[in-house]
Amino acid sequence: MSHYANPAHAHSAARGGHSQPHALSHALGPQHHAPANSSSTRHRMPTVEYKPTKWAASMAGNARQKRVLPFDLPGQSNQGVSMRDLSNRGPNAPIAGAGDQIFAPLGVQKISLRIIWPGYQHVEWNRSIEVSTITRAGLAYQVASNFARFFEKSAYETPSSATHYLISPAGVRFEHLYLVSLTNTIDNVWQADVALDLR
Fold this sequence. Notes:
Layout: H1 24-27, E1 29-30, E2 42-44, H2 53-58, E3 67-70, E4 81-82, H3 83-89, E5 110-114, E6 126-130, H4 136-154, E7 177-186, E8 189-197
Parallel strand pairs: 5-8
Antiparallel strand pairs: 1-3, 2-8, 3-7, 4-7, 5-6, 7-8
Region (Disordered): 1-45
């Protein structure tokens, strides 16, 4: 089974006992790996990274440390949050570090959310999200809402290649999705790290 990313959490307490929810070292940590998820029914999706042709050519051989923004329920780590629950509860979903304004220290106004699903690379999904004052829970809700609309659109599409992740009533459905993290893959482009729970 693939491993989950395990970035530092923004809601972790800083040394000395004082919380620092806006510290970049906590909110947006470099990507590294953690042991496999403890759930025997939840599996991480392979991520198809967005790489424009010109960027791929210019950056060939140049390693880049990615920034990762995690999402979990309070008291959990690397488990992710149900996108169906996020969609139903809205921007006030009770997730860990829900009120953290993670982009405020960066001065970032907008990010680009790209969804690239294995076998459905031909389905273009690139949406701008205003993040200057958005909270972690608000961002999670926006991501879940985008995945819900992407699944609605892709349900009428024919996969462009063989895939183990067919979007259909008998295959992968929106309610199977868990948002584990967002990764800054290039420039202002962010992509979701998604886990599936097919129970």
